[in-house]
């Protein structure tokens, strides 16, 4: 396995004003890959995960699996994970701090070994991001949880079946609960679950391993088994990367053919693109062409759980609204602090004001290049999009956020005709 890249301060220099044209293949989903890779902890048998994107959060997940004692091999998008025997139940603080999704190891470790010690995931830049719902499911299943020296110490003798109604809809909370219950043979019921395609992809994997899961509306009924099998699975396409590339094509007045997508996962985004004036041609379940011409129409966007408009696309669509022909309103309902791109977009000439959870965006004729800083993953994608349409040159700093969640975004954009240069941090170059 390649060595793990340290956090770099590489930056991107974007010369705006190029129309994007051509075809591009969308990568496998980051947020589906992470729980699926971690699900391999549930079995002694080897597991193969295909179409895994080569990005920082995936490498962090490999590092975490390695730390626990699993064998990992990654080659050309194919991950081989074998957790035959583990030598640790501890997800160290320094990894959890880098990637909050590390909390996902708790469910499988408790299910298989009855023990897990996980660094306490603190707040993060987009919001408090609590994990109380994960812990409530573990406790209902008989786990005893203590916090000692910044670590969550969890133990369970024998997992009891659980009936639980989530108080908020949570993606990783649902995933952790499913993995926790997957070796319990008695019937458990989870209500008010998340139904994001990434959650359903994990459900598919757990079924391949031998877990019975019925899904009806927002209710899941789970019957696990102790001897879970290894699996081979290809993760779903990344609907957020696809959406980001679609917005790029539209905004630059270009013509972009996205290949290897799942149109049925992109409904809310496609609807908003059409409302904004994009020409969207669906060429099959896995191919869509997006064309743009002229300034976008203003939009009303309100983020919601799937199948609603994804919070992970809010920042990218805000860029579209900054140059729209009128006033747009964007309400963020999932995270309480996911507007940090607003300040940076203002530096580029955007006219945005915030009222509580709503951003009011007055469209301007054009943005102008500036030096801007990434604050989180999707915010950094929005700054890249802004750079593509801005007059002059934009420098996007702190792009390790971008590298956490996109597989070669600037390479894909360049392949479509963008002019983006990555300048290596002197300390990590080479
Ligand atoms: N929440 C609670 N208690 C909990 C769990 C969540 O109150 O126990 C609250 C959160 O504070 C938040 C809301 O519920 O306000 C939704 O959070 P959720 O748990 O669904 O988010 P997550 O599982 O931590 C995943 C994705 C995020 C994505 C969100 C929402 C992964 C690894 N991460 O996070 O992806 O924004 O679901 O769809 O799957 C990204 O890729 O950029 C990203 C942030």
Any overview of this molecule?
This protein is of the alpha/beta class. It has two domains: 204 residues, UDP-n-acetylglucosamine1-carboxyvinyl-transferase, Chain, CATH 3.65.10.10; 204 residues, Enolpyruvate transferase domain (UDP-n-acetylglucosamine1-carboxyvinyl-transferase, Chain), CATH 3.65.10.10. It has 14 helices and 24 strands. The strands form six sheets. A four-stranded mixed β-sheet has the order 22-23-1-24. Strands 2-15-17-16 form a four-stranded mixed β-sheet. Helix 12 links the parallel strand 22 and strand 23. The protein is globular. The N terminus is likely disordered. It binds uridine-diphosphate-2(N-acetylglucosaminyl) butyric acid. The site of uridine-diphosphate-2(N-acetylglucosaminyl) butyric acid has 25 residues, from helix 1, helix 5, helix 6 and helix 12.
- CATH fold annotation of the largest domain: UDP-n-acetylglucosamine1-carboxyvinyl-transferase, Chain
Roughly how many Å is the radius of gyration? 21 Å
The number of helical segments is: 14
Proportion of strand residues? 25-35%
Look at the structure and name the CATH superfamily of the largest domain. Answer: Enolpyruvate transferase domain
Tell me roughly what share of residues is in helical segments.
25-40%
Strand order of the largest sheet: 22-23-1-24
Overall SS class: alpha/beta
The major sheet is characterized as:
4 strands, mixed
Nearest-integer average pLDDT: 95
Principal-axes shape call: globular
Low-confidence runs: 1-6
Number of domains: 2
End-to-end CA span: 18 Å
GO biological process, one term: regulation of cell shape
Family: Belongs to the EPSP synthase family. MurA subfamily.
Subcellular location: Cytoplasm
EC number: 2.5.1.7
């Amino acid at each position: 396995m390649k060595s793990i890249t340290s956090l770099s301060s590489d930056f991107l220099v974007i010369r705006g004003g190029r129309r994007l044209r051509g075809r591009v293949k969308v990568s496998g989903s980051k947020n589906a890959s992470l729980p699926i890779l971690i699900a391999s902890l549930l079995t002694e048998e080897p597991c193969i995960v295909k179409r895994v994107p080569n990005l920082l959060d995936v490498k962090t997940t490999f590092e975490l699996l390695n730390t626990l004692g699993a064998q990992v091999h990654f080659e050309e998008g194919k991950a081989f994970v074998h957790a035959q025997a583990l030598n640790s139940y501890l997800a160290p603080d320094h990894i959890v701090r880098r990637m909050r999704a590390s909390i996902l190891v708790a469910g499988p470790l408790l299910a298989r070994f009855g023990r897990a010690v996980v660094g306490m995931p603190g707040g993060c830049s987009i919001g408090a991001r609590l994990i109380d719902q994960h812990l409530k499911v573990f406790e209902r299943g008989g786990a005893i949880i203590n916090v000692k020296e910044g670590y969550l110490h969890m133990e369970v003798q024998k997992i009891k079946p659980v009936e639980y109604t989530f108080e908020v809809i949570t993606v990783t909370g649902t995933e952790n609960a499913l993995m926790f219950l997957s070796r319990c043979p008695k019937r458990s019921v989870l209500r008010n679950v998340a139904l994001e395609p990434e959650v359903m992809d994990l459900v598919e994997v757990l079924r391949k391993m031998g877990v019975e899961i019925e899904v009806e509306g927002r209710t899941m009924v789970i019957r696990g088994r102790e001897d879970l099998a290894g699996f081979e699975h290809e993760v779903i396409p990344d609907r957020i990367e696809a959406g980001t590339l679609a917005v790029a094509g539209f905004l630059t007045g270009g013509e972009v053919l996205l290949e290897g997508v799942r149109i049925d996962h992109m409904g809310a985004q496609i609807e908003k693109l059409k409302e904004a004036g994009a020409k969207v041609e669906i060429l099959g379940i896995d191919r869509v062409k997006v064309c743009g011409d002229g300034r976008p129409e203003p939009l009303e966007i309100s983020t919601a759980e799937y199948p609603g408009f994804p919070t992970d696309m809010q920042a990218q669509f805000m860029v579209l609204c900054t140059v729209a022909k009128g006033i747009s309103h964007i309400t963020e309902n999932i995270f309480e602090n996911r507007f940090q791109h607003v300040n940076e977009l203002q530096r580029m000439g955007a006219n945005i004001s915030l009222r509580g959870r709503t951003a009011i965006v007055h469209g301007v004729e054009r943005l102008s290049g500036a030096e801007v800083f990434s604050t989180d993953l999707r915010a950094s994608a929005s700054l890249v999009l802004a750079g593509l349409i801005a007059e002059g040159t934009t420098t996007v700093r702190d792009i390790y956020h971008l590298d956490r969640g996109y597989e070669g975004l600037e390479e894909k954009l360049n392949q479509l005709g963008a002019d983006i240069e990555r300048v290596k941090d002197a300390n990590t170059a080479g």
